[in-house]
Amino acid sequence: LLSEGLDGRQVLPLALAGETIFAGTDDGIFSRGPDATAWSRLPTLLGGREAHPRVTDLLALPAGRLLAATPKGLLRSPDEGLTWTQLAAGKGHAVHSIAASPDDSALVVAATASGFLRSKDGGSTWEQTSPSLPGVTPHVLVFMPTDTRVLLATTTAGLFRTKDQGDTWRRVTGGIPYSDLTGIAVSPDGRTIYASDFDWGGIFRSVDGGVKWERMRTGDLPSDRVWALGLDPEAPARVLATSASGMHLLLPP
Questions:
Q1: How high is the pLDDT of residue 90?
Q2: 169-205 burial, b if ≥16 CB within 10 A, otherwise e?
Q3: Among candidates 7, 110, 10, which has minimal Cα distance to 53?
Q4: Which of 5, 34, 135, 169 could form a disulfide with 19 if both were Cys (CB 3.0 to 4.6 A apart)?
């Protein structure tokens, strides 16, 4: 079974390093190699004690480095999860999301309860680029694949964009609602973007890089209150949507 070894834990983010899959859960981090028959817990010892962190986001970077976002700050491993340290940046504050540039894995941005952080060395050191958005909780950060200065963030109050790697943020307009937007997916060419509305339901699509938006037809989707979105890497027009009723495939119109 794919869940063998997880023992009912809630899986939140997934990250892939080579052929090894890492799973962040509500009770720590697990890994599964290509020949493994079950998931194995990675010890997250902080101060000599197992932390059992709730992992809200997870990044696998080159050379075996892992970054984990948790409600108590950022965790970093230099050795594929064998050892962990808690980073001073964002310590004690919830880290909602982390994203690495598709062109430069050393460039990482994190959305925390205290503001946005940026690292230019793969997570070793961080600087705060901007304060938190007033009254807004970020969900997912994503770099635009065609311009690493630009990131998008889904939040509890709509979609926000930065054009300077997190120094300043502006709300996205053009037909996308100012509601609890959760999932986001961007096509490799950066032109087509999908975002899901969890408050009122629906998936919104832009075909011009995020300038104008329209609500998609979701067909037979049992629930259009979608939490997460993804694209088929071999056919980016095929959208994967996760809701309370499971994962569904939306075919292009």
A1: 77
A2: beebeeebbebbbbbbbbbeeeebbbbbbbeebbbbb
A3: 10
A4: 34
The label of the residue with tokens 């050191």 reads 125
Distance CA 240, CA 123 (A): 29
Report which of 47, 53, 59 is spatially closest to residue 17, judged by C-alpha positions: 59
Distance (Å, whole) CA 28 – CA 25: 5
Q: How far is CA 203 from CA 11, 53, 82, 122, in A?
A: 23, 31, 39, 32
Q: What is the pLDDT of residue 12?
A: 87
Residues of the chain with pLDDT under 50: 1
Rg (CA), the chain: 18
pLDDT of residue 58: 96
Residue 130 contacts by C-beta under 8 Å, 6 or more apart in sequence? 115, 116, 166, 167, 168, 169
Q: How many CB atoms lie within 10 A of CB 13?
A: 20
In the prediction, which pLDDT does 243 show?
76
Q: Is 29 helix (H, G, I), strand (E, B) or coil?
A: strand
Residue 163: both structure tokens together:
């054009």
Distance (Å, rounded) from C-alpha 77 to C-alpha 146? 29
Per DSSP, what are the bridge partners of residue 119?
A: 108
